[in-house]
Amino acid sequence: MNQVFLPEIVPHTGKLFDPTVDAYGTRLALVFGNESRTGACPFYGRECFHCDIGAGEGAFTPELNLQRLRFYQEHYYAALRNLRHLILYNSGSLLNPRELSLATLDRLLTFARGLTDCVLVSIDSREQFVQEPIMCRLQAGLRAGQQLRITLGLETQDDHSRRSLLNKKMSRKGIARAFSVLGKYSRRVGAELNLMFQPPGIPPSESVADSNKTILYGLDLSHEFGVPVDFNFHPYYPSSIGFRHFPAHARGGMAQVIEAIAQARLLIDRAGSDSKLYIGWFDEGHDQEEPQRAREIREHLAGFLKFNQTQDPACLVAN
């Protein structure tokens, strides 16, 4: 094919992810542009004081996103043939029509439906946009055999850290309402909860306990509403905006990160849940402590990648 694409169509290196493998099989994350007037998440700068992703890539249109989809189809041609888990996100919420038009969403659903080996589609959003009309649209757009997950950036169950320090105004009432909507779809629709290890406000001595409490909170929601739940585990690192707001807050130590992941897996197994854990390690180039990050990747990434596939904590050892 070798089609020539405009520069803005091709994501920069940090957003152009390599296929990897998780517990479901081959996994690929595709980043699309935000179609809001500014091209940024509407909460960027006034909420979520840890997140640079919300700055976006500039204002996109449905046509630009269609061109980006075509780029992905060419660029990932080989990987898409046996893809099992597709992840879709932009710099905000894919279920907010102000940030992604319904026309673009329908195109993405058609694309996902055509991936013959794909069994799971994850769509990034925020709790207030989880509404029955859009969920019906998503279900109708996917094949009967495809599972859907809505990814929500919970970060931590600690309300002070999440709502006051990070200024992410996700309330427990709002989260429960979103789960109540997801629970109406006969377990074909689930949630992925993003967990931040050692977020601002949580000292190192309490970081593993906070991670455990966040896992248990997600499992309780899963049990109460009959919603399958997976967890994306992200060790905290200082982004540009995060460093400005929390200059003294340190990233989590690797020994504690490994302990937290092992304990999370144990809690899930003890609960009799089939929830999966995925250690997210690719930051789109926002980490402001590159030397530490490079060392962590060199020593631990291979083990984390093995864990993502096997779910076996024994993989969590330094190379």
Write the layout of secondary structure elements.
Elements: E1 20-22, E2 25-31, H1 62-75, H2 77-80, E3 85-89, H3 102-113, E4 120-125, H4 132-141, E5 147-155, H5 159-165, H6 172-182, E6 189-197, H7 207-225, E7 229-235, H8 240-245, H9 254-270, E8 277-279, H10 290-310
Helix pairs in contact: 1-3, 7-9
Features:
single chain, 319 residues, alpha/beta, TIM Barrel, eight-stranded mixed sheet, 8 strands, 38% helix
Question: Any overview of this molecule?
Answer:
The protein is an alpha/beta fold and 319 residues long. The protein has one domain (8-315): TIM Barrel (Alpha-Beta Barrel), CATH 3.20.20.70. It contains ten helices and eight strands. It has helices at residues 62-75, 77-80, 102-113, 132-141, 159-165, 172-182, 207-225, 240-245, 254-270, 290-310, and strands spanning 20-22, 25-31, 85-89, 120-125, 147-155, 189-197, 229-235, 277-279. The chain has an eight-stranded mixed beta sheet. β1 (20-22) and β2 form a beta hairpin. α1 (62-75) packs parallel to α3 (102-113) and α7 packs parallel to α9 (254-270). The radius of gyration is 19 Å and the shape is globular. The N and C termini lie far apart (40 Å). The mean pLDDT is 95.
